[in-house]
Design a protein that fits this description.
Keywords: Coiled coil, DNA recombination, DNA-binding. InterPro entries: CB, DNA_brk_join_enz, Integrase-like_cat_sf, Integrase_catalytic, Integrase_recombinase_N, Tyrosine_recombinase_XerCD. GO terms for molecular function: DNA binding. About 45% of the residues lie in helices and about 15% in strands. By secondary structure, it is α+β, with helices and mostly antiparallel strands. Helix 2 packs antiparallel against helix 3 and helix 3 packs across helix 5. The relative contact order is 0.07. It is elongated.
């Protein structure tokens, strides 16, 4: 059952559609045009196949389900779930970008070829970063997965499921590079400054990501127990785990601490102080770590 009601506000009257979909009460603001509101009302009544069963309203999966209707319901669901405002704004912009550029009106208009064409066209234009294009695909796919869930059954499947995202690496970085040999790694260490050398030794011995390594604090290090702890807040996969330290890694950490002490300052050596800092005593940036590596490789 869908109805139109008037909402009076400072600028005049705004017409709002009030309807039920997937067992949820939804609202859609149409605007100040009564005729347009009535037209959209007729479309809703035509597109939604609703049946009363066991006191619940259920929608029949339909490849002709209108994407704008699903979009409105999905955004309302996110608001009801308490999603943050910035998350809602990003989701809205991303999905609108996909729908506007593809011209898709119903679920059956979307398929793998549509997603691939969307990627290629926007990539060729060069106005949007690959990460932004990927966000449009990801949020639209998430919306369709939500619509295809057993609780809502507004479409049979998610037609964007499994579509590959664009690489976010620069073209110069996309070429495959072999990992340095042991001899090459020793040469890199020899060409690095002592503080960078110790950082790379710990990364190589533990397998930490660069972001995880530069986020380590002395609280995370147990030199006596020869263990290292990676916290959930700093782990890319949001896991908490411990690693055993090799004698080489322990030696590098001991040298790092001794070098900091030799400067005559205890700043940053407390439990919450960073383990690795630059020669100026500032925090490392992830890109700064790779810059030092490339500099050493050129030598």
């Amino acid at each position: 059952m869908a109805t139109i009601y008037e909402r009076r506000q400072a600028g005049g009257v705004v017409y709002v559609l009030n309807y039920s979909a997937g067992g949820e009460r939804m609202r859609r603001v149409v605007g100040s045009d009564r005729a347009e509101a009535e037209r959209q009302l007729r479309e809703l009544e035509e597109d939604f196949h609703v049946a009363e069963r066991a006191g619940r309203v259920q929608t029949v999966p339909d490849s002709r389900a209108r994407l704008r209707d699903i979009f409105g319901q999905y955004m309302q669901w996110q608001r009801d779930e308490g999603h943050a405002l910035n998350t809602l704004q990003l989701s809205r912009r991303s999905i609108e970008r996909f729908l506007d550029r593809t011209g898709a009106r119903v679920v059956s208009d979307i398929g793998p070829t549509v997603g691939e064409r969307f990627k290629q066209v926007l990539r060729a234009e060069g106005k949007l970063a690959p990460a932004t294009i990927n966000l449009a695909l990801a949020h639209t796919s998430r919306m369709l997965k939500w619509a295809a869930s057993p609780q809502r059954r507004q479409c049979e499947t998610n037609p964007l499921e499994g579509i590959r995202h664009l690489s976010t690496m620069k073209e110069s970085e996309e070429e495959e590079k072999d990992a340095p040999t042991e001899e090459e790694f020793r040469a890199i260490l020899a060409a690095s400054t002592p503080n960078v050398r110790r950082l790379w030794v710990v990364i190589a011995e533990t397998g930490l990501r660069k972001g995880e390594a530069i986020a380590l604090t002395w609280r995370d290090i147990d030199l006596d127990g020869r263990t290292l702890e990676v916290r959930t807040s700093t782990c890319k996969t949001r896991r908490h785990y411990k690693l055993d330290l090799s004698s080489v890694a322990v030696q590098a950490l001991q040298e790092e601490r001794a070098a900091r002490l030799s400067r005559g300052s205890l700043d940053g050596l407390g439990p919450d102080g960073p383990v690795f800092v630059t020669r100026k005593g500032t925090l490392w940036r992830p890109n700064g770590v790779w810059d030092r590596l490339e500099c050493a490789m050129r030598k």
